[in-house]
Input
Amino acid sequence: SRVTLSPGAIVLRGFALPDAEALHAAIRAVAAQAPLRTMHTPGGGTLSAAMTNCGTLGWVTDKAGYRYTPQDPLSHRPWPPLPALFAQVATSAAQTAGFSGFHPNACLINRYEAGSRMGLHQDKDEKDFTQPIVSVSLGLPIHFLWGGLTRSVSPFSFLLEHGDVVVWGGKARLHYHGVKPLAAGQHPLTGSCRFNLTFRFVAP
Ligand code: MD3
Ligand code: FE
Output
């Protein structure tokens, strides 16, 4: 099904289900080259989701701040290339949601374990906000929080499940969002975790 969450935010329920096993295998292959790791915020906090990247640019945070880098700071090597399947799924989801010509160059992989969460934030490190963001959920379900263009708008919660893809463009691109702590569980494909793939076009 194709549901509009708010103008510009289109939920494609189950869109990635046919590719879920292959996507999971590709995540493992990327993580074998660029391990999932815990990152730190400039303020001294620690993110509870483990992260890695593929594509020409990867999102990182540490004492120096949030940014996109061409190299993995752990290995000083380029991030692994975007698997062909990742690009296909992201481009076809964007097209289905009405955004043709989306060609992401960055994919952030988030791994949530029981208790991992992500506080309300905006994605604004990309510089180019004309392109949508595509997110793919795999594994355990999580309650996603969808706010407004300012922090003062109370978010509402929405369940994101295995195989769901959401395309966030236009007005939705700069909305505050986050996820509630992951509830413990077991998923046949991913075990005790949830993976989220976030595809972006980041201006070089
Ligand atoms: C709405 N990730 O990595 S996915 C992130 O579940 C992030 O891992 C969450 O927020 C996760 O930045 C949420 C859905 C999502 C991703 C990016 C967005 C929603 C978005 C960008 C703009 C608006
Ligand atoms: Fe985000």
